Amino acid sequence: SYRCRSAFKLIEIDDKYHILKPGHVVLDCGAAPGSWSQVAVRRVNALGDDSEALMGRVIGVDLQHMNTVPGAVILKECDVTADSTQQKISSVLGKTKVNVFLSDMAPNATGIKSMDHEIIMQLCYVALTFAIRVMARQATFVCKLWQGPEQRRFEAILEQYFEQVKIIKPRASRSDSAEVFLLAKNFTPPTPKK
Ligand code: SAM
């Protein structure tokens, strides 16, 4: 069983868009208590339950304490926006690149809509900047945000790096009216500057 209801948001997104495949390397940012990582472990075959299929990997990272998730590497009490965390993640990855970058990260909401929007968008930008460095060609990027004026600009930036960008409002998140997920598919890495 899943550690929290959020699991059903990722299940809904993946059942519709098929982003998680056996063999994929997944980075799950804002992973606590761990339900997205649980879903990802199964769907990328990180425990090798399907002996015929490729085995994937899942790395889950969160600011908060987190219990281990079988099949995943968990970096708890780590801020994804910190250089030290990004270095830890890179060293866990080694030479492998991320196929599916997930962010369900959310700040503690203040209740002031415009402020919460700005704070979560900052997280989205930092996540994307890091993602661009660690994602494989053709990777998928999914991130949660609370809707507001900065969303359109963020989508435009995603469109520079990805072939397709979709806005998803899972049925499982209907109770949180401002929440949407952006799904960006088919990443093209930027050409390195000389
Ligand atoms: N997807 C998770 C699941 O299914 O179990 C639920 C994630 S919860 C909605 C959002 C999480 O984002 C919180 O646990 C919070 O600690 C984390 N978070 C917020 N800012 C973060 C940051 N800068 N670095 C890492 N995690 C962060």
Question: Could you characterize the architecture of this molecule?
Answer:
The protein has 194 residues and is α/β, with parallel strands linked by helices. It has one domain (7-187): Vaccinia Virus protein VP39 (Rossmann fold), CATH 3.40.50.150. The protein has 5 helices and 7 strands; from the N terminus they run αβαββαβαβαββ. A 7-stranded mixed beta sheet has the order 3-2-1-4-5-7-6, sandwiched between helices. Helix 4 (113-134) links the parallel strand 4 and strand 5. It is globular. It binds S-adenosylmethionine.
Offer a concise description of the structure.
The protein is α/β, with parallel strands linked by helices and 194 residues long. It is built from 5 helices and 7 strands.
Shape summary: globular
Question: How do the SSEs run, as a string of H and E?
Answer: HEHEEHEHEHEE
Strand order of the largest sheet: 3-2-1-4-5-7-6
Helix content: 25-40%
Q: CATH homologous superfamily - what is it?
A: Vaccinia Virus protein VP39
Domain count: 1
